[in-house]
Every structure is written in C-alpha cells, then in structure tokens.
Amino acid sequence: MQQGQMAYDRAITVFSPDGRLFQVEYAREAVKKGSTAIGIRFRGGVVLISDRKIRSRLVEQNSLEKIQLIDDYVAAVTSGLVADARVLVDFARIAAQQEKITYGSLVNIENLVKRVADQMQQYTQFGGVRPYGVSMIFAGVDSIGPRLFDCDPAGTINEYKAVSIGAGRDAVTAFLEKEYKEDLDEKEAVSLGIRALRASVEEGQEFRPPEIATIVEGSKFKIYTREEVEKAVQNA
Amino acid sequence: MQQGQMAYDRAITVFSPDGRLFQVEYAREAVKKGSTAIGIRFRGGVVLISDRKIRSRLVEQNSLEKIQLIDDYVAAVTSGLVADARVLVDFARIAAQQEKITYGSLVNIENLVKRVADQMQQYTQFGGVRPYGVSMIFAGVDSIGPRLFDCDPAGTINEYKAVSIGAGRDAVTAFLEKEYKEDLDEKEAVSLGIRALRASVEEGQEFRPPEIATIVEGSKFKIYTREEVEKAVQNA
Amino acid sequence: MQQGQMAYDRAITVFSPDGRLFQVEYAREAVKKGSTAIGIRFRGGVVLISDRKIRSRLVEQNSLEKIQLIDDYVAAVTSGLVADARVLVDFARIAAQQEKITYGSLVNIENLVKRVADQMQQYTQFGGVRPYGVSMIFAGVDSIGPRLFDCDPAGTINEYKAVSIGAGRDAVTAFLEKEYKEDLDEKEAVSLGIRALRASVEEGQEFRPPEIATIVEGSKFKIYTREEVEKAVQNA
Amino acid sequence: MQQGQMAYDRAITVFSPDGRLFQVEYAREAVKKGSTAIGIRFRGGVVLISDRKIRSRLVEQNSLEKIQLIDDYVAAVTSGLVADARVLVDFARIAAQQEKITYGSLVNIENLVKRVADQMQQYTQFGGVRPYGVSMIFAGVDSIGPRLFDCDPAGTINEYKAVSIGAGRDAVTAFLEKEYKEDLDEKEAVSLGIRALRASVEEGQEFRPPEIATIVEGSKFKIYTREEVEKAVQNA
Amino acid sequence: MQQGQMAYDRAITVFSPDGRLFQVEYAREAVKKGSTAIGIRFRGGVVLISDRKIRSRLVEQNSLEKIQLIDDYVAAVTSGLVADARVLVDFARIAAQQEKITYGSLVNIENLVKRVADQMQQYTQFGGVRPYGVSMIFAGVDSIGPRLFDCDPAGTINEYKAVSIGAGRDAVTAFLEKEYKEDLDEKEAVSLGIRALRASVEEGQEFRPPEIATIVEGSKFKIYTREEVEKAVQNA
Amino acid sequence: MQQGQMAYDRAITVFSPDGRLFQVEYAREAVKKGSTAIGIRFRGGVVLISDRKIRSRLVEQNSLEKIQLIDDYVAAVTSGLVADARVLVDFARIAAQQEKITYGSLVNIENLVKRVADQMQQYTQFGGVRPYGVSMIFAGVDSIGPRLFDCDPAGTINEYKAVSIGAGRDAVTAFLEKEYKEDLDEKEAVSLGIRALRASVEEGQEFRPPEIATIVEGSKFKIYTREEVEKAVQNA
Amino acid sequence: MQQGQMAYDRAITVFSPDGRLFQVEYAREAVKKGSTAIGIRFRGGVVLISDRKIRSRLVEQNSLEKIQLIDDYVAAVTSGLVADARVLVDFARIAAQQEKITYGSLVNIENLVKRVADQMQQYTQFGGVRPYGVSMIFAGVDSIGPRLFDCDPAGTINEYKAVSIGAGRDAVTAFLEKEYKEDLDEKEAVSLGIRALRASVEEGQEFRPPEIATIVEGSKFKIYTREEVEKAVQNA
Predict the structure, then answer these.
(1) Band of the pLDDT at A3, cuts 50, 70, 90?
(2) What is the structure's pLDDT at F3?
(3) Contact of A125 with A131, CB cutoff 8 Å
(4) Which residues 122-151 of A are in CB contact (within 8 Å) with B?
(5) Interface present between B and C (3 or more CB pairs within 8 Å)
(6) Which sign, positive or negative, has the C-alpha torsion E184, E189, E193, E199?
(7) pLDDT tens across F165-185, in order?
(8) Contact G26 A7 (CB under 8 A)
C-alpha cells in the first residue's frame, strides 16, 4: 500500500488523486476470498458450477449452496460476503417478480442484472453506506436465448460465453480462455467447467465435487444430484 | 493488532484494504464472551442447551434464561450482548407472527431466520449504527421437519445438524465433530449436548446444570425442569 | 486507560477490538456516582430504599426524591444523571398508561421494564445520541406477584429477589448476599435494607435516614413518612 | 484541565471515561458568568431578586431586565447567555399557555418547569446541538401554594425554599444557608434577599439596587418600582 | 489566541471549557469590519446614521445604502457581511408583514426584533450552519413611542437611547456616553450623531457625508437627501 | 497562506478567528480564473462584453457564449466555474418567469438579482454544500430604466454604471474608473468597453474580438454579429 | 502532488485555496483511463467511434459496447467508470422520454444534455456523494440539424464539430485539429475518425476495429456491422 493511499480509502464518496475508488477495490478483495464459481453457456442452455468449501460435517450442505434460483429461467451464483450475497439474491428475486408482472412471462435477464447492478452502483456513490462485498454470475434463458452475465462490487456488468468469480477466478479464466470452444453441448460444458475448476485447486489440495446446476431452454432450472455431480466429475 | 488496522475499524461502512469489516469482527468478540449454547437435531426434534453463568443467588434465575420461545414450534438461544439479544428475540417473535398471519399455521423457520439475519446484515452496511453484538441459534420444527440454524453479527446463516455459539464454541464444536452420530433419539441428543458442554468447561472450573429445552414434532416447546436437567446431567 | 482505547470510545456506534462499547461503560460510571438504591422482595410485596444525599436545608427534600411512582402498583428508583432519570421515569409512566389501556387493569411489570430497556438499548446502537446515564430499579406487584427488576445503561434487565444500584452497590450487594433470607415479611425486609444501606456508608460518614417505599399486594404504593422511616431505622 | 479531557469534551453525545458530559459542564461556566439571581419563598408568596449589571446609561434599563413574567402567577429569572435565555423564556410562556388550555386556569408550576427542563435535557443527549448556556429560577403560586424551582443546563431541577444562580451563587447560598428562617413575611424575605445579594458583591465594588419582583397568592406578579427597590434596600 | 482554543472554535455547537462560543465571537469580528452605524432616539422619533465606505464612482451609491426600510414605521441599519445582512433585512420585512396581518396596523417593534434575534440565536445552537456575520440596529415608532434596538450575531438584543455598531462602535459609544442628553429634538439628535460619527474617523482620514434617515411619529420613514445631509453636516 | 488558516478554511459553516469565510474567498479564486466580462450602462440601455477564450476550432463558438438571455429585457454574463454558471443562469430564468407571472410584464431586475444572490448566500451559510464558484453581471431594462448589477460567490450584490468580473477585472476597472463618462450613447459605451477589455490583455497576448450584446429600452436583447463586433472593434 | 493539497481534496464540497475542486479533477483521472471515443459531425449527420478494449474472447463483445442509443435520433458514447456510465445513460434515456412527452416528437439535444449535465453538477456541489467518474459525447439530429456535445464530470458541456474523450483524447484532438474539414460527407467523417483513433494508438500496440455508429437526418441510429467496420477501416 502506498504512503498517501490511506487518505482516500475510507470514504466511499471520495476519489483518489489517480481517479480510483479504494473502497470498491477493497470490496473486491472480499470477493477474492470467496468460493470459486463458474458459468458456461452451451447450445440451448447455461451451466453454473460452484466450488464447495470444506466445512464441518455438522453443517447441512444445502445451506451452504451458492447457486440460487432467481426465477423459473434465471439462476445466480455468488462469491464474497455471504450475508451481502443473500440480500442481493433476494433483491434480484423481487426485481424478477416485478419484471414479470410488468412485461410478461419471460424475464429479460439483461434488464434484471442491470437492476441489481444499479443497486450496487448506488452504494459506491453515496455516503453512509459501504459497497456490497459480492460478485455475482447470472445465468438463464430468455427470449434471446441462453445468457450469462457477471456483476461486481462496482456495479459493472458484462455478458460472457464463459466466466468465473471468486478465489480461483484467475486460474479458471486462464483455463477457459485456452479450452473454451463454441457450440458445446451440456455434457461438454459441464465437463469443461469441472476441469476448469480443478485447474484452480492449488497443488496438494483436495478437489471436492462442486455444486452444478443448469438452465436449459424449455426445461427450467435443474440442480445436479450428488450422484449426477460425481458421475460428471468422473467423466470430466 | 496490526499497525494500519486502526484506520479502518471504526466505521462500519468501511472495508479494510484486505476486504474485511473490522466492526463485524469486533462484534463477534462480544459473542465470544457470551455464555456457551448448543443446538442438536435428533430424530423428530431439536434440543437447545445453554450454559448458566454463575450469578448472585439474589437474581431470579429465570430472568437469565438464554433459551427463548419465538413461536409454538420455534425457539432461539442467544450469546453476546444481553440487551441486543432481547431486541432481536422480540424482532424474531414479531416476524414469526407476521409469517404465520401471511402464510398459515406453521412458520417456515428458514424464512424466519432470514428475516432476522437481514436485519443484522443491514446494521453492517449502513452508517450511523453498529452491528448487533449477538449470535443466535434457531431451533424448531416446520413442514420440512426438525431444523437448526445459527446467525452471526454479519447476518450470515447456516443450517446444522449440531452447532454451538459463545465462549465454549470451539471446544464444543470439536467434541461434536468427533461424537455426533446421525439419527439420535432425544435422550441421546441431550446426553451428547451435556457432554459437549462439559467438554468446554475449563479445568478447575465447576460444571453447572445447564438450561435444556426441546422442540419435538407434534408436541411444541418444552423447557426441562431443574429435576429433569439434573437427571439428564447424571445420565449423560 | 489503555493506550489504544481512546480510538474506540467516543462514538457509541463503534465496538472496540475486544468487543466492548466504551460509551456504555462510561455511562455506567455516571451511575456509580449516583445515590445508592436498594430493592428487596418480601412476602406479598416489595420495598424500595434510597439513600438521601446531603443537600442544603434550602432544598425541598421531596424534590430530591429518587423513588417515583410509575403506576398504581409499580414504582421505580433511579441512580445517575438526574435529568436523564426524570426523562426515563416519564417514559415509563406513559408506557404504563399504554400497557394498561391495551391489556387491562394490572400492568405486566416485565413488559413495562422491557419497553424502558428497549429505549435505552436503542441509544447504545444508533449514532447521534449518547446512552442514558442512569440505572433503574423497578418494583411492583402484578398478576404473577411481587416483582423486582433492574435496568442499566446498556438496556440490560434482570429480575431479582434483592438488588442495589448506585455508589454503594458493591457494599450493599455483598451484605445482601450474606444476609438475605427467603420469605421475609415487610418489617424484616425494611430492616434488612436499612442495614444493607448502612453497610455501604463509608467509615466516618454519617448515616442519614433514607427514603423508604413499599408496594404490597392489594394496597398500592406507600411512601414511609419521616417518622416511619426513623422508627424503622431505630428498629433495624 | 487534564491531559486526556480534550478528547471527550467537544461532542455533546459523548461521555468521558469517568462518566461526565463536559459540554454540559462548560455550559455551566457560561452561567457562572451571568448576573446573580435569587429566589426566596415566604408566607403566601415568592420573591425574585436579580443583580443589575452596570451598563451604559444609553441602554434602556428595562431591556436588561432578567425577571420575566411567564404566566399570571409564574415568573422566571435567568442567568447565562442572554439569547438562549430569551428563547427558553418564550418556550416556557408557550408551555404555560398549553398547560392552561389543557388543565384549566392555574398552571401547575412543577409540570411547567419539567417541560422546560426536558427541552434542556434533550440538548444534552442528541448530536448536532449544544446545551443551553442558561440556568433559570422559576417562582410562582399554584394550587399547592408558593413554589420555587431552579433548572440548570443539564435539565436538572430542584425545588427550594431559597435558591441562587449566576456569578454570585456561592456567596449568596452560603449567606442564605446561615440566615434563612422559615415562615418569613414578604418584607423579611425581600430584606434577606437584598442582604444576600450584597454579600456576593466583591469588596471594593459598588452594590447597585437590584430588580425585585414578587408573586403573592391572590395578587399576581408585581415588579417593584425603582422607589420601592430603593426603600427596600435602605430597610434591608 | 490561546493554545487550546483551536479545539473548540470550529463547531458552532460546542462550548469552550470556559463557557464561550468561539464561532459567535468570530462572527462579531466580521461585524467589527463593517461600516459604522448609529441610532439615536429623540423627542418623537429616531434617527439612523451610517458611514459611507469609499467605493468606485462606478457604483450606484444607493445600492450601497445600509439604512433599509422594514415597514412604514420601522427601519434598520446593518453592519457586517453584506449578503447576510440582506437576507436578515428580508426576514425582518416578512416578519413585519406577518405581525401587521396578525395584530393590526402598527408593528410592535420589540416583537419584530425578537423574531429576527431568535432566527440568529438558532444559528448559534444548531450544527450545520454558521452564525450570521451581522449586527443590526432597529429603529422605529410603535404604540409605545420611538424605539431603538440592536441585535448581534449571538441573537442578543437590547433597547437603547443611543447605540452604535460596526468598525467605529467603540469611539462612537464613548462620544455618545459623554455627549448624549435626554429630550433632544431631531436637529440636535442628527447633529449629535454626525459629531459622534466624525469622532470615530481616524486621524488623517476624510470624513464623508453619511447616510441619514429618520422615523418621526405620524410621518413615517424619511431618507435625507444629499443636500439635507450636507447641510446637517455643516450645522453639526 | 498563514500557518493557522488551514484549520478554518475547509468547512463553509465556520468563521476564522478574524471573521472571514475562507471557502467564499477560495470560490472567488475560481472566478479570478474565469473569462473577463464587462457591463456598461448608457443612455437608454446597457451593453455586456465578454472576452472569448481561445479554444479549438472544433468547438462551436456559440456553445461557449458567456452572455445569456435571462428574460426579454434582462441578460447576464458569468465568470468562473462553467457548470455552476449554467445552473445559476437557469435558476435566474425560472425566477424571472415567476416574477413575471406574479407581478406583470416587466421584471424588476433588482428583485431578480436578489433572488439569485439569496440562493448563493444560502450556500455560504449551510453545511453540506460549497459556495457557487461564479460571479455574474446582470444587465437589463426595467420600469426604472437601464440597470446593471453584479453578484459574487458570497451573494453580495451592487448596482453599477460600469462593472467588470473575471480574470481581467482589476485592469478593466482601473481603465473604466479613469475613462467612464456619464451619458454615453450605445456606440460610445461599446467603444469604451472594447478599449477597457483590450487594456486587460497582457502584453504579448492577442486581443480577440469579444462577445457583445445590448439591451436597449423598447427593443429587447440583441447579440452583435461577428461583423458588427469586428466593426465595433475597429471603431473603438 | 503539492504538500498542502491533501487538506482540500477529500470533500467534494470544499474549494482549495486557489479555487479548485480536487474531487472533480480526480474524477477526470478516471475518465483518462477510459476507452477513447470520438464524435464527428458531417453533412446531415453525426458519427460516433469508440475504441474497443482487448478483452477475453469469452466476453460477449456487444456487452462492452460504449455507444448507446438514447432516443431515436440521439446516441451517446461514454468513457470512465463503466457502472457510472450505465446509470447516466439510463438517466439520459428517461430524460429524453420526458422531453418527448412534454415537447413533442423530436428531442432538443441541447436541453437533454443540459439535464444530464445538471445532474452531474449537483454531485460536485453537495456533500455525501462523489462526482460521476464519466465523460460523455452526445450525438444526434434535432430540429436545428446534426449536433455534437460533450459533458465532463464537472457538468461542463460544449458543442463541437468534432470531439474526443478518454485515454486517447489528446492525440485524437491534435489529429482532428489538423485534419478536420468542414462539410464532410459520412464516408469522409468515418474515415477521418478512424485515422484519428489510429493516431492515438501508441506505437507497438495493435489497432483494433472500433465501434462505429451514425445518426443521419431522416434515418435514425445505425450501428455499423463488423463487416462495415472492417471495410471502413480498410478504406480509411
């Protein structure tokens, strides 16, 4: 950390002399400590994959699930501060309901992501609040087809063919850049994601079967069972 | 404490350069000074056990009780700042009433815990307030069956088979990780909890008969009488 | 005072690194400078006793009275900042009126104390205010029988058989712990309280006849006359 | 001033480590620079006496008058910041009007003083304001008889037989403690007050004829004329 | 400036340890740099006189006029920050209109001055604002007769026979204390004021013809023409 | 800058010990960097002249115009922060519309300027805002005749025969003080203004044809065409 | 950075001693890191060109598009903080809808840009917010013809024949100043823009085909296809 930095990094409403918002950058550090998550678009659908952190066997694993259904054809996976993530997921669900009521049955996913991102941007511009310490991947199917977005603590959004957030993001992205091919089918996409996630596991560390979920055109959201996950891991 | 830390830890709305919220961590310190509490799920129910702090014989013991009924089939035990805990218990009771009025007779415990946790999360994101200095265990029975959650000052929640909060948490959790077995009956669960609590008593310190309460499917909330507690302690 | 403490103790909404709220602790210091007050439950009633500080003979003694009627069957005695105490007593009186209007003739004392304590807790969690510099003993009779509570600047409440607040609290409590017996009658309780108060008078200082008041089941609030006090002191 | 004090004395909502509110104490310093005022109760009435500060002969003396009528049977004398005092006197007058409209013809003076004191207490507990730099003596006659109160910047009130505020308060109080007798008549009370005020004049300084006003049961507020004052001073 | 002063002088809501409000004192410094103004009561009226600062010949002199009509029979002269003064003059005019509508044709000048002064006092007690950097002299005729008040940044008001504000205040006041006589007629009062103003001109500096205005019972506000002023200056 | 100054110059609501408002003075520095503008009254009208800063030939020159029409017979020229100026010009236009609707067809220019100046004064007295970094010259014709005012960041206004703001103000004013004559006609006034502006151009710098606009009784606002300006410059 | 600067640059509502608003200047630094964008007016239309930053091939390129349609005949390109830009684009779209509803079919582009710029100016004058870290170019056709504006973080706007924002602004502007000719047709304008953008690419860096869009009188907004862009680049 530079000498002069500390003067500008404690109030979210303040730019540093080189035009940076330190609080937003620090919020991204919270995300970098979060579990690794991956989204990959394939022919007719999208797959979400999330690392499972080791926890006590006393914890109900499903209470740790990072992949959350937002609406019939939209899901999200989060990385970062767990409570912030829950609040944003709820925000997204309500926004999806409102979109549906206002515009009809299929939610426009881009609009939905924008509403969440606008909320996140506000918390980087006004005093008296801190940014959300969360990044999110939104995946789903709308009238345009399969869609995949991410959204970071600054409220910045992008659309992807394949994307990663959280602790393993750099390793996963490097892997995907190399291995991703257009026009995958579901199996290939799941396999690609598992291999990418595995690539982010540091040497000497165990690779745990991740959460996997897909949204396919016409058949809504589907969470892989433990058996399906294990089979997919073996086939990857 | 690191040299630079003090610059980031006095305003709740501020991230530290490594993405931490110090005020939330300090609130957890308040919880670490609280009485030890344990929740264990068993076949058809949940047991809550709370350490009793030694107090003057002039105090009405029931005014110190940490296990509180939230609704017919939901109870909570708290650890941390006593006044904060009371306010959150009241918040939970009102939320339970609202859930019941809106959705029918049996409260969805997960929804209830989320509402309390959302309240706690808000106090970590907005300026002008401090986080609640409290962790809570919620136990109960809903349409899914027996349920057991905890919630910490960050507003993070998880579901458990067995869980502990407060001063003895680390010792209790280590004990439970080793000794917990699936499909306990009530007696076994109570016995396990008592032994776990005893494991957290530091050497040379007296083990006092704790508070014990259960919620069993179909028979609501039950607080053990002093005699029942003593018998359970002897049988543990 | 520790070196690092001053960084955390000037804003009520801030935890110290070890999870303390210094402003609440400092407010308790204001209480420790207040007059000593005692509450003792006896068979069928409660007695309140308060030290009288020496003041100019020009002051109307009754304007210094610390024991205040809250409702027909509830009284309170305060210690700490006098103006804060007056404001809280008024708050309690209005709350009692509201309880009575809402729930019928006899006020539930525990609910009443909680409402005052909730008010006090709020002032420890929100910015822009300071905690109340006051502790209170609430005594009364409700449908459960004689009741005795205290409430401190944190908003913490407990129920007691016998309790003390203010400058002499430690000495009085030590005395009561040793001498308190269950099932006292009014005379014995008054005598016990007077002796406890006397035990808190530092050597070489004069013991002044205190304020004494009782609430007895079926006969409401009664303040002892000067003669009754003197007689009680002689008989103690 | 102690070394560490400055850290706690600039925000009214902050206690010092020993439980003091420095801003309230500093407001009292403003009062200590104010003109000396005295109130004395006598048989059937109350007298108020206020020192007259030397001012330019160009000033209309009555615009400096410290004794102010609040209501038919209530008057007040103030000491401290002149503008604050005017604002509080107006506050008291409006409160008296409201009391009269709500409860009937004779204002309960204790209630009236409490309302002013509550206003003053608020300014010691909330941020963004400073305490009033004023102490007041309220004198009057209500259904209980002649009454005499003071109220200081903390919002503390007491009832007196005789009381003093302002620069000469200590000297006057010492004099009154020695010389005050019960059951004075008006003449004796006025004489006592004049002598007490004279006792507070520092050696070598001139004693100026003070303001004098009385409220007597059945005959309302009366300000002594210059001749009556001079005669009273000669007879004192 | 004392060493410790700077800790207390930047927030208007803060008393210094000796009970002073530094921001109010600093606002008075702004007044001390203002143009000198004088008010003198005479038999049946009041005269206001204000120094004219030298300004470019390009300025419309009447746009610099310090003497402002408030209402038919009330005028004011200001000294200090020019924009603050304009705002307060407008405030006074609106208050005068309201007084007239509420109470009838002739404005009670004392009430009017109090309303302006209350506004000024508020700005010395609440955070987030600074005091007005202005003193004012109010002159007029009401049902009591000719009246003359001043009002300073603290919101303090007094009634005078003769008064001065601004840069030359001390010199003018010293002159008036010596020379002022009761029962002057208009000519004598104007002459006295001119001589007093001249007494405040520092040696070697030119005395410029001042602004002069009178309010006389039954004939409203009158501003002296340049010729009348010059004649008055010659006759003084 | 003096040593102690920095303690008082960052909060607009704070006076310095010598009664200055540093933030207002710093806002004036922003004006001193602005383009030079001049206003001159002549027989039956007013002329406004503004320097043109050199800018890229890619800029539409009329988008840089400093002379803005406020209402049919009122114009303004600004100097200082460009965005602040635009906001104040809009404020003035709306105020002019309101004046016209309320009082009839011809706007009273003095009232209009006061409303803008009051807005500017507010921003020097309340916290949470900064002063406007703009000075303005208002020129126009109303029922009194041709009028010319300026208004600075403090909210101070004056009426002039001739006035200048911005970077060249001192040089222009010195020139006008020497050369200005009463009862100019339009040509003479324009010529005087051009020569004054030329006098403010520092040696070695090019003199660019300025913006020129006039408001003449009965013929509204008129902006000189490029040809008219060039001809006027040649004739000056 | 100068020594004393840091005292003035962290609160947007504060001027530095030389009349600067550092937070606005720092926000401009954020813009200087943004992608280069260019606008050029031609006969009957306007072209917008934006650099494409290299990103992962996993990103959907259209989700990075900087050129955004605001209304049928108005588009904008942004540079700076991406989330801030999205919020301002939405603001502009809503403003355009309101303009259209209020004033009829063709939006007045200058009014539209002013509304966005006013919003940006507000965030430089009020506390509790930071300025937007964005500059925008607005291009379109209205009743006046083709129009081209920019708007910076200060809220300053200008109209241009050709303009550039973002990282390459200085190089592009230098190129345009030299090469821009009046009365270009669309092809020439596109070619000029591409060459200008290429001029801003630093040596050794690859020139990527940019985004190109035009608005032509009578034919609305048109985004060049990839093929059209490539052809234009070849022809440039």
Answers:
(1) very low
(2) 46
(3) no
(4) 123, 127-133
(5) yes
(6) negative
(7) 999 999 999 999 999 999 999
(8) no
* Cβ-defined contact of B56 to C157 (cutoff 8 Å): no
Note whether residue D9 is domain-resident.
Answer: no
Measured CA to CA, the distance from residue E110 to residue E136 in angstroms comes to 13
Q: Does E111 touch chain D (CB under 8 A)?
A: no
Range of the domain at F171: 20-52+63-235
Q: What is the largest CA-CA distance in chain A?
A: 56
For range D159-165, the mean pLDDT: 97
Q: E touches F (3+ CB pairs < 8 Å)?
A: yes
Nearest-CB residue to C30 (from D15, D149, D173): D15
- Read off the pTM: 0.90
Residues of chain F neighbouring G165 (CB-CB closer than 8 A): none
- Calpha distance E206→G129 (Å, rounded): 52
**Closest chain C CA to residue D129:** C128
CB C150 within 8 A of CB C162: no
Which among C11, C26, C129 has CB closest to D125? C129
Backbone dihedral angles phi then psi of residue A200, each to the nearest 5 degrees: -90, -10
Where residue C19 falls (left for φ over 0; alpha for ψ -120 to 50; beta otherwise) is left
Nearest Cα residue to B144 out of B74, B206, B76, B204: B74
Tens digits of residue pLDDT in B43-86: 999 999 999 876 789 999 888 889 999 998 999 999 999 999 99
Is the distance from CB of A89 to CB of A70 less than 8 angstroms? yes
B8 to chain C, any CB pair closer than 8 A? The answer is no
Instruction: Name the average pLDDT for chain C.
Output: 91
**pLDDT for res A1:** 41
**In this complex, is the C-beta atom of A182 within 8 Å of any C-beta atom belonging to chain G?**
no
In a domain, A101, yes or no: yes
Mean pLDDT of chain B: 91
The number of distinct structural domains making up chain A is 1
The reply to whether G171 touches chain F by the CB within 8 Å rule is no
Contact G17 F1 (CB under 8 A): yes
Chains with 3 or more CB pairs under 8 A to chain G: A, F
Whether G95 is covered by a domain: the verdict is yes
**Chain B contact set for C184 (CB, 8 A):** none
CB atoms within 10 A of CB A16: 20
* A180 neighbourhood in chain G, CB within 8 Å: 57-58
Q: How far apart are CA G41 and CA G147, in angstroms?
A: 7
Subunit contact E87:F161, Cβ cutoff 8 A:
no
Running along chain G, 236 residues long, what does each successive block of 10 average in pLDDT? 56 81 94 97 97 85 88 95 96 94 84 96 89 97 95 96 97 96 95 96 86 92 94 94
Q: What is the CATH number of the domain that holds G159?
A: 3.60.20.10
Read off the pLDDT of residues A200-232 as tens digits, 9 standing for 90 and up: 998 778 899 999 999 999 887 899 999 999 999
Given a cut of 90, whether residue A48 has pLDDT beyond it is yes
CB E149 within 8 A of CB E137: yes
D84 shares contact with chain E (CB less than 8 Å): yes
E119 and chain D: CB distance < 8 Å anywhere?
Answer: no
Considering the domain boundaries, does residue D10 fall inside one?
A: no
Confidence (pLDDT) at D5: 61
Q: Does E52 touch chain F (CB under 8 A)?
A: no
Q: Give the residue from chain F lying closest to E134, CA to CA.
A: F19
The whole-number average pLDDT for the span F226-233 is 95
Selection from D177, G156, B58, D231 nearest residue F78 by Cα: G156
Q: What tokens were used for A147?
A: 């869609």
Distance CA C65, CA C226 (A): 13
Nearest CA distance, A1 vs chain G (angstrom)? 17
| E14 in contact with chain F, both atoms CB, cutoff 8 A | no
pLDDT at A4 over 70: no
